[in-house]
Amino acid sequence: MxxxxxxxxxxxxxxxxFVIIAIVITLYFSISxxxxxxxxxxxxxxxxxxxxxxxxxxNYTNILKSxxxxxxxxxxxKICFTGYVYRLLDFKETEFVLARDMIVSSDMQTLIVGxxxxxxxxxxxxxxxWVEITGEITQGSYHGNMPIIxxxxxxxxxxxxxxxxVYPPDDTYIPTSAIF
Length: 180
Hints:
By secondary structure, this protein is α/β, with parallel strands linked by helices. The chain is 27% helix and 31% strand. A five-stranded mixed beta barrel has the order 2-3-4-6-5. The protein starts with 9 loop residues before the first helix and ends in a 14-residue tail after the last strand.
């Protein structure tokens, strides 16, 4: 029969506990950093090349901002969303913004936000009419470089009873330029 007698002095025990705690903390921060890095591409990855991305009131401004910040990464992607027709005086006959009102303050002040769209039958849809479009993101120019949706399908719809407002980009939005 063998008997082992292991003696630890206080300093050795403290060192062992310190090393174990340091390893646990390092693992925790490594896993957290990996999850943050993985989620940093969340908005951009929502648009898959082979399928149509549907914008909703919840993801509208995150996608809008992401596409405007990095147009080249989204060229050729298909997108579907609803909004109302909004035109400016210097738009071409085929252009309009498919707009939504974004609430910017607690007293319901809004800004008009949206994608510039191009369609050969744009003139068939009057200002303020609600439409649903399916189109492809292209790169174009309107007072500078910007995304333009080339409309493939457009149909007039009734104004929704809910979710007519959108909100500023949320905390999950991370600009692509800030990642690297």
